[in-house]
Every structure is written in C-alpha cells, then in structure tokens.
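Hi P.,

Sorry for the delay on this. The queue was packed all week, but I finally got your sequence through. Input first:
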Amino acid sequence: MYSILVNLARIIGPAIAAALIAFVGLAPCFIINGVSFLAVVLMLGMMRAGELRISPPTPRAKGQLQEGFKYVVSTPILGSPLLMMAIIGMLTYEFQVSLPLIAQETFHGDASSYAFLTASMGIGAALGGIFFASRKGIKPYKLVSAALLFGLAF
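Then the structure:
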C-alpha cells in the first residue's frame, strides 16, 4: 500500500510540476519546492527530545554480519523482499538519471515530456500495486521473479 502511495505521488507531482512550469516558469518551481520543506523543518522543530526513547546500540561482536545474513536467509518473509529490493536496486534505480535523458534525447521533449513519462511510470506502478495487493496467495519467489523481470526489462 505504501508503494501505491509513492507511485500516486509520481503521478500527481509531475502533473502539478508541468502545470506550474507552463504557467510560472522553472525558477518559481524551485522556490515552491524549497518552501514545501518548511513543513518538515517545522515538524522536526516541534519534536520534544525528552520524549524520544533512544535504545542503546548493540555492542559489536565477531560474526554479527554473518549471523544477520543467516537469519534473513532462514526467514523467507524477510529474505524474499530483501532479495527483491537488492535486484531492483541494482538494476533499476538509475531511472532517475535515464528518464530525463529519454524524454529529451529519444522523444525530443521538454519538462512536460519528462512529467508525462514519470506520471506514466507512476500510473503503471500504482495499478500494478493495486492489482497485486488484491491477490491472495502470492508466493515470495513470485515477487523476486517479478523484480528480476522488471530489472531486466528496464
């Protein structure tokens, strides 16, 4: 469900950005984006340090990393999603660099072309997320296989 929200932001954000770029230009968009971070800064400033519960760090010991990997491998509910994210991370997270280049060089477009491509990706991912969230009995290996196919397709 979180993935669906992230991808809906990919749909709505570029649409708003394209409209703003068309009406006010590029520079005001950067100013608006900067001002939007004020809410985050305000919320961080409102946090009360006395109410935070800081847990002590686990002391370092020999074999911790190996123990962690063994635990992940022996726990499919953790292992499959982590493997899936590793595959996606290695093969597809460069789209933030390549998508603007595809919009400009392949389609000879501008910011609105890039916004269209980003929104299209968001729509596809949101629909895919809704489709898979509504299915029952999805096996972890199917998620990993889908991640691998996604990476190879990209």
